[in-house]
Amino acid sequence: MGNVVGQPQAAAVSSLQGQGLAPSSTSTTSCDPSQNGNVTAQNPSAGTSVQNGATVTITVCNNAATTPTVDPPTAGTASSNVVPKGPGATGRATATKQAPEVGPPR
User: Fold this and answer.
1) How far apart are CA 5 and CA 39, in angstroms?
2) pLDDT of 21-70, one tens digit each?
3) 3 state SS of 40
4) Residue among 95, 5, 1 nearest 58 (CA)
5) Which of 27, 51, 83, 84 could form a disulfide with 89 if both were Cys (CB 3.0 to 4.6 A apart)?
6) What is residue 64's predicted lDDT score, i.e. its pLDDT?
7) DSSP secondary-structure letter at 42?
8) Would the pTM count as exceeding 0.70?
9) Which residues does residue 60 pair with via DSSP β-bridges, in sequence order?
């Protein structure tokens, strides 16, 4: 029986079926994410003599790297995440200077 370790799952299944064998798949997350979808082990191992129709179990990496998703804040909740900092901070805007009064045009 040939070696299918390192091959993508579909190619390994096709190869084993082409050798008259019956592939069976299991998965593992104990593998490098770069190997996701590839065969990491086979049993019996490559080079073993097996009868036609024998079952060969392949272990496939199922450890895709994921990108965490961050949900945007919904309306009305964004301000609840604001934390005032500094002495006397209240979280409210206060005026420190008053604008000069403007009268009617002359």
Assistant:
1) 5
2) 999 999 999 999 999 999 999 999 999 999 999 999 999 999 876 666 67
3) strand
4) 5
5) 84
6) 78
7) E
8) no
9) 27, 39
